[in-house]
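User: Working on a comparison across species. This one is Response regulator transcription factor from Stenomitos frigidus AS-A4. Can you predict its structure so I can line it up against the others?
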Amino acid sequence: MRSPGVTKPPEDSQPFLVVVEDESLIRETITMALTDEGYQVLAVEDGRQALEVVRASCTSEGGNIPAIDLLILDLMLPYINGLDLCRLLRQEGMTTPILMLSAKGTETDIVVGLEIGADDYLAKPFGMRELIARCRSLLRRANRQPQPQEQLVIQFQEIVLYPQECRVTVRDKAVNLSPKEFTLLELFMNNPRRVFSRDQLLEKVWGIDFMGDSKTVDVHIRWLREKLELDPSSPQYLITVRGFGYRLG
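Assistant: Here's the predicted structure for Response regulator transcription factor from Stenomitos frigidus AS-A4:
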């Protein structure tokens, strides 16, 4: 028997979206809007149910739960909150796009959500048109063919990046980077000493459809410096070019 708060998706070839929202009215409204757009939608009401659904979709025992194309995740959830759930799913290797919803819309809240692995962030209250536009954008980005890796190892001075392993070492010590930090560093290391503006970095790392604040770039640069530099206040690798942007070296 399916748990309360779960709406069974129709069986067709349309993208499969999972909505995790504990407020019934919002959950039903989102489900109806996405269903009207032709998507398959599975709605659950808490983090524990969401974790079970995601794990089931990744196994042959998932039954009638197909692979998930997009996860719409509320921040405040019973049992497992959205931040913890997002962090856990990324740690388990889930690469499905995640759109995070929250009544908390401060820059700090948005950056934290993106830092732990969310692909986009939508603050409440929001319109259904904007939600649908964000979903379409994330689905388009997920369907783009990845660029082939031409190098097994990229090195710049004491930084070594392994693209196929998503691994980075600095001065022979492993550093733990978030997906966005890794992609940002990889872009810089493939283009040493090239200056990138904030808008260029947003387009190349976050995608042309990203609707967030350009300050997101500054925050991620700061976090990268803390992990790469001996003295983040006097960086030797990630250099600020005032009036233009950032460069590596």
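For your comparison, note: Residues 128-143 form the longest helix (16 residues).

User: Helpful, thanks.
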